[in-house]
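Is it possible to get an amino acid sequence alongside its tokenized fold?
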Amino acid sequence: MVALTACPQDEILIVGEFGRPLPLGSGDASPLPRLVYRPDGCPGEDAAGGCSSVCTTAPESCPPDACLPLVVDSGSPITTLVGDGPPTAVRGCFEVRTAAEALAEPPIEGAAEQAISRFRFDSTPYIRLPRDTADVSWGWQVGDGTAAPFVGGVLGGNVLRQMAVRFTDARGSDGPQITFYREFPGVESALADQGSAASRCSSRASCSAN
């Protein structure tokens, strides 16, 4: 585990497995890059192991202790998570988990138990929005007309800009993956030799794709 402290004005502390590919959410029809998280802050030892369940329906109908999908989106300027009460800007802590086969409906046996916490984002500024879909203009759904799944949050640019991010698509035998780095390993020419392309994403989040 490696700790990364952001710029002083942001004061985000990131602890996690930098450089290790993490399985993205799979099991449904949407290719959106998603992890999962528990919306009760940083539970630490209280949530050792995987999720008790992964809820893929509207957040308002999900059990309070269920893990929810978290879409990775550098185009969103700030991270947004479900919460109680009116919309509020907060500084808090949350953990993200792997999500291979965790988004299938009906659930795939064992997938929730394998959703292990891999990164902790502490002292992070984010927006907390109500669970009720009627109180959120986009109703906690992301995607398009072909697939618009529910999520419980957005991992946005204010967090992603603190790291380098690499996505690997589903063509490999290991399925879709995401890898967080403190910085990109190597220069652009070296990445190109490896068959990768690096680009500067919106909100100053660095991204790479195979």
Helices lie at 157-160, 188-193. The mean pLDDT is 85.
